[in-house]
Amino acid sequence: MASPRAPNILITGTPATGKTSMAQLIAQELQLKHIEVGKVIKEERFYTSFDEELDTRIIEEDDEDRLLDFLEPKMMEGGVVVDYHSCEFFPERWFQIVVVLRTSTEVLFERLSGRGYGDAKRDENMEAEIIGVVEEEARSSYGEDVVVCRENNNLDEMAATIDFVRELYEQKSNHQ
Ligand SMILES: Nc1ncnc2c1ncn2[C@@H]1O[C@H](COP(=O)(O)OP(=O)(O)O)[C@@H](O)[C@H]1O
Ligand SMILES: [Mg+2]
């Protein structure tokens, strides 16, 4: 299978850990393209139905296949920052850097409440963050030289992560 012409970055984490904000800033600072996968799923209708009770889109295997086919050429071009709350169904070869954002319980509670999530959806996400579901998923799906885990509670931490990723991206670009 082919590898990307330039490194790609995946920003992942529980909803409201700050993935989209971080991906936007990294793309801007490093002059990369940003793909917000949740938005692509909505716009291109890569989902089968909407579960009112769970307040979530149901993505079947066929939707996932169509999404991966849609993304493949963009990923092969390289220089893309992708953000999504899950990471295990992407091909491993797509990403040379995987950043898992982590947020403290108090901060995440505030952000999820501010987003207008119902209690059940908020609590489900809080629990996933406390257990570290996405971090575990990333560590079992990508190599240890690819995954980095970063706290993202405030703007200082965000700025530090952008600097960290910039340096890592330059290193990986030189080794390609
Ligand atoms: N490092 C940060 N410091 C303070 N607020 C942040 C930080 N990162 C994100 N936020 C805020 O948290 C909320 C969720 O961020 P967002 O990027 O939409 O998260 P996600 O894409 O992971 O769901 C937004 O209101 C955003 O402005
Ligand atoms: Mg987002």
Textual characterization of the structure:
By secondary structure, the chain is of the alpha/beta class. It has a domain at 9-39 and 80-170: P-loop containing nucleotide triphosphate hydrolases (Rossmann fold), CATH 3.40.50.300. It is built from seven helices and seven strands. It has helices at residues 19-30, 37-43, 61-77, 105-114, 119-131, 133-141, 155-174, and strands spanning 9-12, 33-36, 49-51, 56-58, 80-83, 97-102, 147-151. The radius of gyration is 16 Å and the shape is globular. It starts with 8 loop residues before the first strand and ends with a helix. The chain binds adenosine-5'-diphosphate and magnesium ion.
Mean pLDDT: 96
Instruction: Tell me how many strands there are.
Output: 7
The largest sheet, given as strand count, sense and whether it forms a barrel, is: 5 strands, parallel
- Which architecture of the domain at 9-39 and 80-170 does the CATH hierarchy give at level 2? 3-Layer(aba) Sandwich
> What fraction of the residues are assigned to beta strands by DSSP?
15-25%
Q: Write the CATH fold name of the domain at 9-39 and 80-170.
A: Rossmann fold
Order the strands across the largest sheet as they lie in space: 2-5-1-6-7
Estimated structural class:
alpha/beta
Bound molecules: adenosine-5'-diphosphate, magnesium ion
Low-confidence runs of at least 5 consecutive residues: none
What series of H and E elements makes up the topology? EHEHEEHEEHHHEH
Rg is 16 Å
**CATH class label of the domain at 9-39 and 80-170:** Alpha Beta
Q: Can you tell me the CATH superfamily of the domain at 9-39 and 80-170?
A: P-loop containing nucleotide triphosphate hydrolases
Measured between the Cα atoms of the first and last residue, the distance is 16 Å
